[in-house]
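Incident log, support desk, overnight shift.

02:14 A customer reports that sequence design results differ from what the structure should imply. Their input is reproduced verbatim below. On-call engineer (initials T.W.) acknowledged and began investigating.
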């Protein structure tokens, strides 16, 4: 019998209740007073902000908007408008000056091809440092905004956006995130916005991934929930085998991002 591969449908009410209870429990158990998160104007951070506001109340949620000179104006506007819509606190911290200080101190040419990705990851880590500054300042926890799709393929910066105290939506595929955000009534402009990391000028999803998440998510379901081979997934989904194999390689290559740093004791058993 031929397998079927599809992203599981969410019970929206149950999913929201589970996440809200999870957020409340984590914050209560830690003794924190609230949460802080990076607010980019994208779908993941917008959903996490909405769920945190529902769980804790807007006065206990801080959204930090951290643009660069090449951050699209509409992303900043969307982040500000969302914060107002949700009734959460927000601050804007331009990270250009901080990153420029690193570039100057490191003595690198930012236009050199080989430093493009190291500087992209540096920006993500600068944002992490800023979030933890506010977390320390207010006795807040950092809420991570990564989803399951990004996590499984390693599409996040280690100790950058991959660093947080808890992850409210990391059990949801990207397509599920969009569906849940739509159910919650988040602004249409955010719902329609394509995924875009914006870690360097003109940075697009297609720069790094071989397909959109509407294609990637069913592949991930086939690989890690159905336990099918790349050949089987390719045939069932009618997706080139090269794309399925690419996604699987990304998972293997990024394994270190999902594991604690190894020690000699780990290696020796």
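02:41 Re-run completed on a clean worker. Output:
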């Amino acid at each position: 019998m031929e397998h079927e591969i599809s992203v599981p449908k969410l019970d929206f009410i149950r999913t929201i209740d589970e996440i809200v209870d999870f957020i409340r429990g984590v914050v209560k158990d830690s003794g924190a007073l609230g949460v802080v998160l990076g607010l980019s104007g994208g779908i993941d951070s917008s959903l996490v902000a909405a769920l945190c506001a529902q769980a804790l109340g807007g006065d206990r949620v801080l959204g930090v908007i951290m643009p660069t000179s090449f951050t699209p104006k509409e992303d900043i506007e969307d982040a500000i408008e969302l914060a107002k819509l949700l009734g959460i606190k927000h601050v804007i911290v331009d990270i250009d000056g901080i990153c420029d200080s690193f570039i100057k101190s490191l003595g690198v040419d930012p236009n050199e091809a080989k430093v493009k990705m190291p500087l992209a990851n540096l920006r993500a880590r600068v944002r992490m440092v800023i979030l933890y500054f506010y977390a320390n300042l207010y006795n807040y926890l950092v809420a991570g905004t990564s989803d399951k799709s990004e996590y499984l393929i390693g599409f996040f910066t280690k100790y950058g956006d991959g660093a947080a105290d808890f992850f409210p939506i990391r059990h949801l595929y990207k397509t599920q995130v969009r569906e849940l955000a739509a159910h919650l009534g988040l602004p249409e402009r955010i719902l329609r916005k394509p995924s875009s990391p914006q870690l360097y000028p003109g940075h697009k999803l297609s720069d790094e991934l071989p397909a959109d998440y509407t294609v990637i998510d069913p592949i991930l379901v086939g690989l890690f929930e159905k336990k099918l081979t790349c050949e089987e997934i390719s045939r069932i989904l009618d997706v080139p085998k090269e794309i399925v194999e690419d996604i699987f390689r990304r998972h293997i290559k990024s394994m270190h991002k999902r594991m604690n740093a190894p020690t000699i004791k780990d290696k020796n058993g």
